[in-house]
Amino acid sequence: MTYHFTIHTEENGFWAESCELSGCVAQADTLSDLRKACEEALNLYLEEPADSKMVFPLPDTTLDTNKDLLSVPVDPEIALAVLLRHYRSRSKLTQKQVSELLGMKNVYSYQRLEKKSNPTLHVMKKIHKVFPEMKLEHIF
Length: 140
Hints:
Elements (H helix, E strand, L loop, with lengths): L1 E9 L2 E6 L6 E4 L2 H17 L21 E5 L2 H15 L4 H7 L5 H7 L7 H10 L10
Helix pairs in contact: 3-4
């Protein structure tokens, strides 16, 4: 999963803003440091949603070929959480309903998946059964 940033040049360095995520910005003295700052800002922005109802827009894949933008990958553990929240919301399911569909003992087990997580292959297989339209290659 890759989001896109517009780079701005200033007298003392650079700053960038996400094209898809309003308010996700970073700044640095060099372009190489800006890339690192964008990765950190992006992961922090996506990792801590205000609540379980917060659903971030998915990356705009039409921007992938725009050479004027900085493409910034999301940490795979965070990307999974973003995708789960997106597909759960799109399916109009609650966290409790999804936890039941996944056969989890309680809703808290599912809620951990909507945070930064690294589930087992067994859990990933269950997720794929609940959300077959979710493309797991978007995680990487």
